[in-house]
Amino acid sequence: MKLISIIMPYFRKQKYLEQSVNSILSQSYENFEIIIIDDELSLESKSVLSKISKLDKRIKIISNPFNLGAGLARNNGIKIAKGEFIAFCDCDDLWSENKLKLQLEFMYKNNYEFSFTSYEIINDFGKKIGQRLAKNIITFNDLIKSCDIGLSTVVIKKELFKNKNFCFPNLKTKEDYVLWLKFAKQGVNIFGLNNKLSVWRKSENSLSSSIFQKLLDGYRVYYIYLGYGVIKSLISLLILSLNYMRKRN
């Protein structure tokens, strides 16, 4: 069984952290390490993560030198990861018990380097409010119009991260979107498994729920990271926003 490294940046998610970690510890595939990166760096976060680390010997806690944001925190986790595969789970999201088993089988069977899955969406109270179904394959042209890859569904061969260009950028939101675009633009095939194996918690108070921040970072995706001009960036952002509105539940 190949080792999988699961990267979890932590910042003010005490309410959901233990539930998220327990959903990973309940996996039928057991050869993994959980790397939780303390990006809050408070006395409270140290206490919370110290308690979490006692749940299982496979849990490792590291601390950023200062608050970096989720994307750069994940980069630090990837650097110390020992697994052949990298998986991501945010500290308020959940996994089904067979996620790693089914996803690794899917990747081995087809010799895939990057996979993602379908997922359900819940609110702060745990009520299901939607779902996203994974397409069989997503290309760069698909991605620039609509980001349909849930971060907590992704598993990637660590070998791909030897390319220093494949890292999360310093954005408050959409940092994962930029990384997926980098992969797709450089010819990495991205394959979807249409099984709902993860649950994304859509929190009303999160950065990802800030419309202004999402629009600002969306513009930066096209203007800074893809090198589009102002007009093309605005048009691309409009298309991305319209496609997001169409798939809202």
Question: How would you characterize this protein structure?
Answer:
This protein is an alpha/beta fold and 249 residues long. The protein has a single domain (4-247), classed as Spore Coat Polysaccharide Biosynthesis Protein SpsA, Chain A (Alpha-Beta Complex), CATH 3.90.550. It has 8 helices and 10 strands. The chain has helices spanning 14-25, 43-53, 70-80, 99-110, 140-143, 175-185, 211-225, 230-247, and strands at 4-10, 32-38, 59-63, 85-88, 94-95, 114-122, 128-132, 137-138, 155-157, 190-201. Strands 1, 2, 3, 4, 5, 6, 7, 8, 9 and 10 form a 10-stranded mixed beta sheet that branches. The model has no long low-confidence stretch (mean pLDDT 94).
Compose a concise summary of this entry.
The protein has one domain (4-247): Spore Coat Polysaccharide Biosynthesis Protein SpsA, Chain A, CATH 3.90.550.10. It contains eight helices and ten strands.
In total, the number of domains comes to 1
The assigned structural class equals alpha/beta
CATH class: Alpha Beta
How many DSSP H or I helices?
8
Q: Helicity, in percent?
A: 25-40%
Rg value:
17 Å
- Averaged pLDDT: 94
Q: Describe the global form.
A: globular
Specify the biggest β-sheet: 10 strands, mixed
For this structure, the CATH topology is Spore Coat Polysaccharide Biosynthesis Protein SpsA, Chain A
What percentage of amino acids are in beta strands? 15-25%
Write the H/E string, N to C: EHEHEHEEHEEEHEHEHH
Distance between the terminal alpha carbons, to the nearest Å? 38 Å
Flag low-confidence runs. none
What's the total count of β strands? 10
- The CATH architecture name reads Alpha-Beta Complex
CATH superfamily: Spore Coat Polysaccharide Biosynthesis Protein SpsA, Chain A
